[in-house]
Design a protein that fits this description.
The protein contains no helices and eleven strands. It has about 120 residues and is mainly β. Strands 2, 4, 5, 6, 9, 10 and 11 form a seven-stranded mixed sheet that branches. A four-stranded antiparallel sheet has the order 1-3-8-7, with no helix packed on it. The N and C termini lie far apart (about 40 Å).
Length: about 120
């Protein structure tokens, strides 16, 4: 069992930056691929970034490519999402998740609100 806790969300102006963190407990994150999802009001939850077990391979949705960076520190059992050049359409609840592959997830955090004001 893996417990995931997100932190670092908040309110930022358009063009600003935030860094989300996802701390894990229960098991080492070395065993999992990690992803960041987001869900805006009235929309489905979607994958925005993911990273493989050892971190050499990443995935980004087209909407965040070039602005967001996912990284992991297995020694700290933590995954990060650096978000730059934020836009109002990035406003959502962001969830981290752990799973066996880049596109399959078993464990979820509780979510962190990110609000980008125009």
């Amino acid at each position: 069992q893996v417990q995931l806790v997100e932190s670092g969300g908040g309110l930022v102006q358009t063009g600003g930056s935030l860094r989300l963190s996802c701390a894990a407990s229960g098991r080492t994150l070395r065993d999992y691929a990690m992803g960041w999802f987001r869900q805006a009001p009235g929309k489905e939850r979607g994958l925005v970034a993911a990273i493989t077990l050892s971190g050499p391979s990443t995935y980004y949705s087209d909407s965040v490519k070039g602005r967001f960076t996912i990284s992991r520190d297995n020694a700290k059992n933590t995954v990060y999402l650096q978000m730059n050049s934020l836009k109002p359409e990035d406003t959502a609840v962001y969830y981290c998740a752990a799973g066996p592959t880049l596109f399959a997830y078993n464990y979820w955090g509780q979510g962190a609100q990110v609000t980008v004001s125009s």
